[in-house]
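Why do we care about 3D structure at all? Because function follows from shape, and shape follows, mostly, from sequence. That is the central idea of this module. The next example makes it concrete: a single protein chain, its amino acid sequence, and then its structure expressed as tokens.
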Amino acid sequence: MYYSSTLNRLLLTILLTFFLTGCPGPAPETPEEAVKSEPLLEPFDAPSLAELDEKVEWEEQPVLDSLELMRERQSKEKPLVSVEEALKLKNDTQENNEKILSALGRLPENDEQVDWGATINRHVGADMKSTNPIMGSSAVEFEVGSLTGFGLFSFDWNFRPFAVADTVVSWQTSKDKKYDKVVMRDDLTWSDGEPITAHDIVFSFKTIMNPDVPVPAVRSGTDQIRWIEAYDDQTLVFFHKEALPTNVWNLNFPIIPKHIYSKELDSDPTLQDSEYHVKYENSPVTGGPYEYEKRVRGQEILLKRREGWYMQDGKQVRSRPYFERVRLRIIEDPNTALLALKNGEIDEMALNPELWKTQTDGKDFYDVCTKASGLEWVYFYFGWNCETLFFQDKKVRTAMSYAFNHQEMLDELCYGLYQPCTGIFHETAWMSPKPMTKPFHQDLKKAEQLLDEAGWIDHDGDGIRDKEFDGKTIPFRFTIMTASRPLSLSICTLLKENLDQIGIICEVKATEFTVMQDKARKHQFQAMFGGWGTGTDPDTGMNLWKTGEGRNYGQYSNPKVDKLFEEGRREFDKDKRAKIYGEIHKILYEDQPYTWLYYRNSFYGFNKDLRGYVFSPRGPYGYGPGFSSLWKPVEK
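And the structure:
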């Protein structure tokens, strides 16, 4: 898989957002306003490559094959049981879970084991908004982009970066950490047959940094690059603004074909409104292992293996993707998706706690499927818009955390499968604070005390707390928005019931996923239920928490947090960095811009014909971009 840098740098969005009455966000730019946008790139005269090589001391960096890296690791790990034994096991203990993963999570031993004509039917819970990789902002868009796009960099299970051998010949970093030089392979082509060159990389960078192009998600991190120069069709140099340990994570942004998008970029910088761009939205040109075969909006996305990816001039130049086709079935309702899994209509799906505990233990499940779980650093939360009258006070936000019945959520709604979350970093992460922050427990008296201190008191005796703002009495009545998923709605409903006990009215509103994304970006909400996955480096959290950043949807602001993020991205010593990010974690815990709820471990159901699922803190199916581990065996 070839994930865009948004998956490298940003926290993987599992965002479930919301729109709340009374909190209008900024209006979208009019065309006249867009023309006045300030340029994001300053003019830059790149030195010649000879001049650069003369003054720079280059250090070689690793260029690796992701599959070979995993094969080498697995060669040292002996399966605990045979495949046949694993397929007979019920996953009802951690011991059995480890046995299942050790046998079924492996790569094939040889090509003869693989059914090269197989189709994998993946499950996704929502449709994608755009097929253009630089427009991506949701998990499903990044998932599709990992199959249809290509990248220059990846990382292993310890988040150590390397250049991908499928696309890169060599990678060098200057000793002073201000430059990276990459020589690309010359056998890369787009799906329309045109060569992929260094000029496509530069064009994509400049397009992302064009202020009139609406791509805030992928711009985060890319905006830390000073300049990129293509010295020929294969040679690139990345010029960094300053020497930072995080620079490597900014190099691998999504790539679009220059020969397609340069023609109408100036006339339609939205990349989506004109007839020309609609044409390529519906029939995209791709650069990765797969291309689009069919898309039925709201139903499925069908991709087919691209021969031009792995074959050039009659010779195989890269590993052939294991599946001939990848079908992503869009099924919003988890119960409907589980029925499709049991019927063999899809090959995998994430299981919520109820499904794992109550609907996947019977013969009807194990006749066709198995299941497995693993640690994943994905946390869920209630997000408070700190610019609203309701949640601008830290005492009120903290009261929300005391009012909520965390234990009932964990024990009853989550069936005891999830652990409580106490902040932005998981306790097993190297950057988590020591000692770790403690979970909140419901304390209604403490919540009421904090609300009283913040001035939210029932002044008129109607049973609802209120407060005066600019001479007008405002009742504490707000809306929290979430996706229409059973667990999400149950958790928000529990919050509503808890707050009702202390004189606060909370209305739960479910909204379509892409609409929620848009509302969150524009800050058009009062509260939300959402979740974030982990980035490859704690610096990725800057986009969520620094004042004014693109994904700081709740408009949180703390100058000390801003300063610590700047310090963290300039510190090369890992132990010192850990202390900095641990301090950020503790400050956010004190400020409670979120009520942190739980870490969602990976719980998945798989068809028994599927192999190669490997769990990591970032989820199943391998560790980093450039790695696709799933496959199906030949039928015996």
